[in-house]
Task: structure prediction
Amino acid sequence: MPITSVNRDPASLTMTVVADFAADLQRLWQVYVDPRQLERFWGPPDYPSTFTRHDAAPGGRSTYRMTGPDGQTHGGYWEWISVDPLTSFEVRDGFASPDGEPNPQMPSMRMHFLFEERGTGSRVTTTTYFATLEELEQLVEMGMEEGLRAAMGQMDTVLADLTAFAAGDGTVCQILSETQARITRVIHGPIETVWQAHHDAALMRRWLLGPDGWTMPVCDVATTVGEKYRYEWEPAAGTAGERFGFEGELLESVRPYRAVTTEQMIGMPGDGTLNELTLTPVPEGTLLAVVVTFPDAATRDAILATGMVDGMETSYARLERDVIG
Result:
């Protein structure tokens, strides 16, 4: 059990949890900023969590749901207040309604996570600040302390599993729900470079090509919220295929870590998708995550069956080779 102490202090309205691990500091930090790893322990074993958004940056937001053995879900959110890489971060943690918005009927709390090297391992100290004594007592009665103990008890396994989340595993697709999938890849380059590569037409034409043998004659980039974009590809001489493209609108943009767009295949009827791009600095470079929301499960399965993920991997490998170098 990694937790070494739990201290509730009614006078200061805090609860402090100290946990020690054999893993090094970088590894411990990464399990909190990588949603694929965080959701493996953020919740008791019988209430696993799924993060549908995770912006590890000041002003960012995370949304997640915990699913119980009976299939019932309970939502939560983090509002990111501050981040000092490899040292600390602070969030406001609260309960969320089914639509992911904060539940005003339930209390929220400020949580500060402090990371420290400890001999051959590392330590995380989690201090939770409550607004009132009543809220502290309410959340303790709801099982907050037991939940934290059970959740963090799973961390040793996550930290030891270096292979599953090692850089270089390529592009991975995870099904999050009937209508959502998360596509992730570690890009070996700094976050600003990766962001620029997604927003500069000249750079995009060098890497965003999918399989070899295609060109990108149209690359109209949206850089301001509300602007429309349009991308078109066509096969080079000697390559089989027909010209196609996508268009949509930029809904959110926070440089260098978040961009949200709609996407519709040109000339195709029906609803398109919502694409949420998140970039997070990690020791190996930049963790790229795209959460795609589809209109329904059938559309999700049909799009993924086109080989989309393989095409994305070819493009991301080209991004590392031809843009980042």
Notes: The chain has a mean pLDDT of 92.
